[in-house]
């Protein structure tokens, strides 16, 4: 069992920065691909970024590439999403998720989810 808890969301101005954190519990945390998803009202949950178990491989949605950075610290059981130059369209609830797969981008490919943290970008 893996438990995930997101934090760090809030109100940020466009062009600012924000870092989301995901705290994980479970001794096998380092074996999972970790991902960030987001969901805006009335929209489907969409993939944002993922990182391999070792942290050596990352992948981003085109909409955030170059602005967001995913990272992990397995020693601390933490995953992060650094959001630079956020835009109004980045406003959503952001979710941390864990998957036993590798090249995973779909929500149904992820096994565990956090409760989500709200990010609101003001313009």
What does this structure look like?
This protein is 0% helix and 51% strand. It is built from no helices and eleven strands. The chain has strands at residues 3-7, 10-13, 17-25, 33-39, 46-51, 58-60, 68-73, 78-84, 92-99, 112-113, 117-122. With 123 residues, it is mainly beta. Strands 2, 4, 5, 6, 9, 10 and 11 form a seven-stranded mixed β-sheet that branches.
Task: Please describe the topology of this protein.
Elements lengths: L2 E5 L2 E4 L3 E9 L7 E7 L6 E6 L6 E3 L7 E6 L4 E7 L7 E8 L12 E2 L3 E6 L1
Parallel strand pairs: 2-11
Antiparallel strand pairs: 1-3, 3-8, 4-5, 4-9, 5-6, 7-8, 9-10, 9-11
Class by helix and strand content? Answer: mainly beta
Mean pLDDT: 95
Uncertain ranges: none
| Fraction of residues in helix | under 10%
Strand fraction band?
over 45%
Note the overall shape.
globular
Number of helices: 0
Largest sheet: 7 strands, mixed
Give the C-alpha Rg: 13 Å
SSE arrangement, N to C: EEEEEEEEEEE
User: For the terminal residues, how far apart are their CA atoms?
Assistant: 40 Å
Instruction: List how many beta strands DSSP finds.
Output: 11
């Amino acid at each position: 069992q893996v438990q995930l808890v997101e934090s760090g969301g809030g109100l940020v101005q466009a062009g600012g920065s924000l870092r989301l954190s995901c705290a994980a519990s479970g001794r096998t945390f380092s074996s999972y691909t970790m991902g960030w998803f987001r969901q805006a009202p009335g929209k489907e949950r969409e993939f944002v970024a993922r990182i391999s178990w070792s942290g050596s491989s990352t992948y981003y949605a085109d909409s955030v590439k170059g602005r967001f950075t995913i990272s992990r610290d397995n020693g601390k059981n933490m995953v992060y999403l650094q959001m630079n130059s956020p835009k109004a369209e980045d406003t959503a609830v952001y979710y941390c998720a864990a998957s036993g797969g590798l090249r995973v981008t779909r929500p149904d490919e992820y096994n565990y989810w956090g409760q989500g943290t709200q990010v609101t970008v003001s313009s």
